[in-house]
Amino acid sequence: MTAGMAGYIAKNKLMPKPEWQVNATAKPDAANPFRIVYSKTPAGGRKPHPMIEKRFPLVLMLEPLHACNLTCTGCGRIREYDTTINKRLTLDQCLQASDECGAPIVSICGGEPLLYPEIGQLQAELLRRGRSIYLCTNGMFVKKKLSQFQPHDRFFFNVHLDGMEKTHDIAVEKEGVFREAIEGIRAAKAAGFKVCTNTTVYQETDMKEIEDLFEYLEQFDLDGHMMSPAYGYAAVNDRDIFLTRDDVREKFKNVEHLSKRFKVNSTPTYLDFLRGERDLPCTAWGNPTYNVMGWKGPCYLITDGHYPTFEGLMTETQWKNYGHGNDPRCDHCMVHCGYEPSAALGINSKFMDTFKLMSWAFR
Ligand code: SF4
Ligand code: SF4
Question: What pTM did the predictor assign?
Answer without folding.
Answer: 0.89
